[in-house]
Design brief:
- The chain is an alpha/beta fold.
- It has two domains: 210 residues, YjeF N-terminal domain (Rossmann fold, 3-Layer(aba) Sandwich); 257 residues, 3-Layer(aba) Sandwich (UDP-N-acetylmuramoyl-L-alanine:D-glutamate ligase).
- Helix 9 packs across helix 18.
Length: 501
C-alpha cells in the first residue's frame, strides 16, 4: 500500500498527476476508491475491531475519499458514524459516486458526539484548500481539536496549506495523515509537519511515469540525490586532490566560530584546511588548533596574499568574522578570485537591507560555486529591501526567490531546512533534531559545506550533503550536544553512509 519516494509535489502538480493518470485510462472513481481504502487500512491499524469511528466528510473529493473509507470500515465491523458538511445533493463527480456507495445515515456534523469516538477521520478539506476555514467548518475543526480524540487526516489536516505548511485560522491537529502518490510541501514544512503527525504515503495506482511530464523540482533531501558526488580518496591520491579550504577568523574575542567551521570542513573530507587569522588572534588560534593550519591574514590584503596559492579553492566567510565593510571587501575579493564560497553569519549581515549589492557582486558566473546559509533573522535583514522575497508564502518559496535573486544556492536554516538553487530546484531536510539549535551549530554547517565545495562538489550537492550529515550528527548526539561535538559525529555519519555502498 505504501511507497517511499523523495519527490514532493505541489497541489497543482498533484492535480496534474491525477489528470494524467485518468487520461491514461484509470477512472477517477477508481483512484478515489483506492484512496478511501488506504484511509480505511490506516484507521484499521490504529483501532481495534468494533471501535467507534466518526468520518467527517467535506463537499469535495476529500469527502469522497471519506465516504469510501466509511463504507469499507463499516463492512469490517467498525461502529462508523458519517457526517457531511453540506448537503449530499451538492456533491459532484466522483465524490457523488462515492457517496452513493454509502448506505448508512448521513448525519449533520453537530449531531456527532466527537468526544465519544475512538477515532475521528478528517475528510473535510484536502491540500488544495486556498482559504481559511470559516463559519460552520471552522466550528467543526475547533470541535475536533477540543474532543481529545485521535485524528486521522485524509491528504492533509483540514485548514493546512498544502504548498507552504502554513496555517491561517483553524486547522486540525492530526495524529496520522494518509496522503497519496507523493507528499506535498505542507507535509514536511512546519507547522504542517507537526500538525500532520505520522504520514503514510499510499500507492493508489498513479504510475510513476507521470513524473516525467510534471518535472517536479522539490524533493526530500536524501543521500540518493547526492551520494554519487562524494569524493572517496584514491589509493594513489594525495591531500590536494581533496581541495584546500580557507576559513576566515574574527578578532581575538571571536575566534571559536572559525575553528568550529575549520574542523567541520576537515571532517567533511577537505584535504587541507587553513584558518586565516588576524595577527591579534594568531597565537590564540594556533594554540587551539593542532591539526588545522593557521596563517596570518589582516583584512582583504592578507586574504589576497593567501589566495595567491590557487590550490586554496574554497573559502568560508562569516563565522565570527565581524560585520562591516572590511568583511564585504573580503567577499568581493573571493568572488573576483573565483573561489568556491560559503557566505554565513556576519558575511550576510554585512549586506543587511542591501541584497542587491550582493547580487551584483555574485554575478552570473558564480551560481555553481556559492552558498549562502542564513537563518530566518539573517534572511529577513538581508532582504529587508526586497518585499517580493519576504512576502512569499512559506519558507520554501522564500528560499527559492532568494536563490533566484542572488544567483546562488540558499540554505534557509531551521527545523525544516530548505536548500534552494537559482534554477528552481529545492530540497527540504527532514532528519533534523531540535538539539541542533545551539550556539555554533551553524558555524559547523558552514564549514562542512565549505569542505564539500573544496572537494569540487557543486554548490547544490555540497549544501545538500552537509545539511543532511549535520542533521544526522545532531540526531545521533541527542540531548546535551555541543557544537564542538558535531564535526566528529558528522565524520561518523559520513563513514556509515560510505560504508553502506
Amino acid at each position: 500500500m505504501m511507497t517511499l519516494t523523495h519527490e514532493i509535489l505541489t497541489t497543482s502538480e498533484m492535480a496534474e498527476a491525477d489528470r494524467l493518470a485518468i487520461a491514461g485510462g484509470i477512472p477517477g472513481i477508481a483512484l478515489m476508491e483506492r484512496a478511501g481504502r488506504a484511509v480505511a487500512e490506516a484507521a484499521g491499524a490504529m483501532m481495534k475491531p468494533g471501535a467507534k469511528i466518526a468520518v467527517l466528510c467535506g463537499p469535495g473529493n476529500n469527502g469522497g475519499d471519506g465516504f469510501v473509507a466509511a463504507r469499507v470500515l463499516a463492512g469490517r465491523g467498525f461502529d462508523v458514524s458519517l457526517a457531511l458538511l453540506g448537503a449530499k445533493e451538492f456533491l459532484k463527480g466522483d465524490a457523488r459516486l462515492a457517496a452513493q456507495g454509502w448506505d448508512g445515515p448521513i448525519l449533520a456534523p453537530e449531531s456527532v458526539d466527537l468526544a465519544a469516538q475512538d477515532l475521528i477521520i478528517d475528510a473535510l478539506f484536502g491540500a488544495g484548500l486556498s482559504r481559511p476555514v470559516t463559519g460552520e467548518a471552522e466550528a467543526l475543526v475547533r470541535a475536533i481539536n477540543r474532543s481529545g480524540c485521535p485524528v486521522l487526516a485524509v491528504d492533509v489536516p483540514s485548514g493546512l496549506d498544502g504548498n507552504s505548511g502554513q496555517t491561517e485560522g483553524a486547522v486540525v491537529a492530526a495524529q496520522k495523515t494518509v496522503t497519496f502518490f507523493r507528499m506535498k510541501p505542507g507535509h514536511v514544512l512546519y507547522p504542517g509537519r507537526r500538525l500532520c503527525g505520522d504520514i503514510v504515503v499510499a500507492d493508489i495506482g498513479i504510475p510513476d511515469t507521470v513524473l516525467a511530464a510534471i518535472k517536479p523540482q522539490t524533493s526530500i533531501n536524501h543521500p540518493s540525490l547526492w551520494k554519487h558526488a562524494l569524493r572517496v580518496p584514491s589509493e594513489e591520491g594525495h591531500k590536494f586532490d581533496r581541495g584546500h579550504l580557507l576559513v576566515l577568523s574574527g578578532g581575538i574575542e571571536s575566534t571559536g566560530a572559525a575553528r568550529l567551521a575549520a574542523h567541520a570542513g576537515a571532517r567533511a573530507g577537505a584535504g587541507l584546511v587553513t584558518v586565516a587569522s588576524p595577527s591579534e588572534a594568531l597565537a590564540v588560534n594556533a594554540a587551539a588548533l593542532s591539526d588545522i593550519m593557521v596563517r596570518s591574514s589582516d583584512g582583504a590584503t592578507g586574504l589576497e596574499h593567501l589566495l595567491e596559492d590557487k590550490r586554496r579553492n574554497a573559502v568560508v566567510l562569516g563565522p565570527g568574522a565581524g560585520v562591516g565593510e572590511p568583511l564585504k571587501s573580503c567577499v568581493r575579493l573571493v568572488l573576483d578570485k573565483e573561489r568556491a564560497l560559503v557566505l554565513d553569519a556576519d558575511a550576510l549581515t554585512s549586506f543587511s537591507s542591501n541584497a542587491s549589492e550582493l547580487k551584483a557582486l555574485i554575478g552570473e558566473n558564480h551560481a555553481c560555486s556559492c552558498v549562502a546559509t542564513p537563518h530566518d533573522g539573517e534572511f529577513s535583514r538581508l532582504f529587508a529591501a526586497e518585499p517580493h522575497i519576504l512576502s512569499a508564502s512559506g519558507r520554501l518559496e522564500r528560499a527559492r526567490r532568494a536563490a533566484a535573486f542572488l544567483g546562488l544556492v540558499v540554505v534557509l536554516k531551521g527545523p525544516d531546512c530548505v536548500i534552494a538553487a537559482p534554477d528552481g530546484r529545492a530540497l527540504i531536510n527532514t532528519n533534523g533534531s531540535p538539539w541542533l539549535a545551539t550556539a555554533g551549530s551553524g558555524d559547523v554547517l558552514a564549514g562542512a559545506i565549505g569542505g564539500f565545495l573544496a572537494q569540487s562538489l557543486s554548490a547544490f550537492e555540497a549544501a545538500a550533503a552537509a545539511v543532511w550529515l549535520h542533521a544526522e550528527a545532531g540526531r545521533a548526539l541527542g540531548a546535551g550536544l555541543l557544537a564542538r561535538d558535531l564535526p566528529v559525529a558528522m565524520r561518523e555519519a559520513l563513514g556509515r553512509l560510505l560504508a553502506a555502498g
